[in-house]
């Protein structure tokens, strides 16, 4: 399951726009021709023919721009035959669309070259996304999982928020965190945290030792004023979930009794700031039975504001969307988040939902293929 992005426009609308775009310069040229024929000052409209090839440069390739330019010059020459102005005057007026057409061809070629470079950059970004924020399957061990992620930077695929979930010899373990800052420095720090977590989660039996290894690595590599807030969680045995909160927003536990924010019993500083003092991270154990869900998120979710500068009330909105399918829950919750902010987030935002299915439902799902084959 790949991180979700802002949804693109309807494909049918994109196709319609792509086919309509080249027709707009032709329509403009025809409109100028009609105005010139309908008025007594026909040649005065000829410079406006340059609008056609200029607009085509933003939508068509060099050959397409050249064809539009030739059409503009041909229409201008035809209009010149309808007037009584000297040939010198007509030539000067026709020079405008001709010169603009040549310049537009060059601009179109440059735009195409930059588009190819951007496509290459995007492909590299996709590879970086898969290496850093690896796709999370819809089921890990006995858990159903869903992830939603949006980077704030325009055209970005990754940002300063991080997450990972993997099965280990000590049960399923996961991390959701938020790096201070944005851009490439934040991505570099996120890569460091995830790399250490993926190694330590397999090696360390104790979840606190996993956090300690991340802290040691950050203390050697981070600038003094940089840090990472994070929640590290693990499910070592049936019926309980272990949590270590390092200055991060409290996870939401969804169970039969309702939805509660799991506040840390002993607040600890963010990762990377242990040398400044404060309490050490502590292990918190919460019950986690069949049907329970755990929602982890970053501050880009709860600090998202609408036009009235009101924060997104996550704790109030989650009950509207909770269902037995984590992917559906996060899809509808993410849509409401985007609606709240007006369509675009201004900070990286990550949501990870973990659900433990009811044991009877799991067995029924496992028996369905054999029953159907019989």
For the record, the count of structural domains works out to 2
Q: How much beta, percentage-wise?
A: 15-25%
Find the CATH superfamily of the largest domain.
Answer: PPM-type phosphatase domain
- The assembly state of the depicted protein chains is single chain
Strand sequence of the main sheet, in spatial order?
Answer: 1-2-11-10-7-8
Termini gap: 32 Å
Number of strands: 11
Average pLDDT for all residues: 82
CATH topology of the largest domain: Phosphatase 2c, domain 1
Low-confidence stretches: 1-16, 362-366, 368-374
Instruction: Output the radius of gyration.
Output: 30 Å
Envelope shape = elongated
Report on the biggest sheet: 6 strands, antiparallel
Q: What percentage of residues falls in helices of 4 or more residues?
A: 40-55%
**CATH-derived architecture of the largest domain:** 4-Layer Sandwich
Q: What order do the SSEs take from the amino end to the carboxyl end, as H and E?
A: HHHHHEEEEHHEEEEEEHHHEH
Q: Work out the helix count.
A: 11
Organism: Streptomyces melanosporofaciens
Transmembrane segments: 20-38, 68-84, 90-110
Protein name: Stage II sporulation protein E (SpoIIE)
GO molecular function: phosphatase activity
Describe the structure.
The chain crosses the membrane at residues 20-38, 68-84, 90-110. The chain is α+β, with helices and mostly antiparallel strands and 374 residues long. It folds into 2 domains: 11-126, no CATH class; 133-373, 4-Layer Sandwich (Phosphatase 2c, domain 1), CATH 3.60.40. The protein is built from 11 helices and 11 strands. The protein has helices spanning 11-20, 23-38, 51-56, 62-81, 87-132, 183-203, 207-221, 299-302, 314-321, 326-341, 359-373; strands at 139-140, 143-150, 161-168, 171-179, 228-237, 239-246, 252-255, 258-261, 284-288, 293-297, 349-355. The protein has a 6-stranded antiparallel beta sheet with strand order 1-2-11-10-7-8. A 5-stranded antiparallel beta sheet has the order 3-4-5-6-9, with helices on one face. Strand 3 (161-168) and strand 4 form a beta hairpin. Helix 2 (23-38) runs parallel beside helix 4, helix 4 packs antiparallel against helix 5 and helix 9 (314-321) crosses helix 10. It is elongated. It starts with 10 loop residues before the first helix and ends with a helix. The relative contact order is 0.10. Residues 1-16, 362-366 and 368-374 have low confidence and may be disordered.
